[in-house]
Automatic annotation (TrEMBL):
Its main location: cytoplasm. Keywords: Cytoplasm. It comes from Acinetobacter faecalis. This is Universal stress protein. It holds the Pfam family Usp.
Amino acid sequence: MTTYKHILVPVDESPISYAAVEQALALAKELKSEVTVMSVISVDPFKGVDFYKVAPAITDYFMQAEENAQLRLKDIERLFVRDGVSVNTKVIRGVAASEGIMAIANEVSADLIIMGSHGHTGFKKMVLGSVAQNVLTQSHIPVLIVKV
């Protein structure tokens, strides 16, 4: 069996992310792997819009998104610490989700990515895009997709 020394787990607010966290925790305990749990605060869709800098509601939205990500990561971090697994957390800002995931994977020298996927197919996938699909095509390391 391949031993994975460093597992990367990208998370968002979805329940499927927590399913990926559970898989990563179980595998990390078994293999004594280090884990990095991360969130991406995606590219600001309002960037470049004239009113952006003067629209407090929009600024507040992104500040709240970051605060929520930090709280989520702290909660997840406690699970790993409780089970004696070495864990780090990271937030990356201002990039597309798949780009951020790949950047952190390279930064921490991850040798496995475990992430959730909603499993959208057909038209829904074409319209919404798929972070998991993008990571699968960009990654040079193994990616474990967790579906619920």
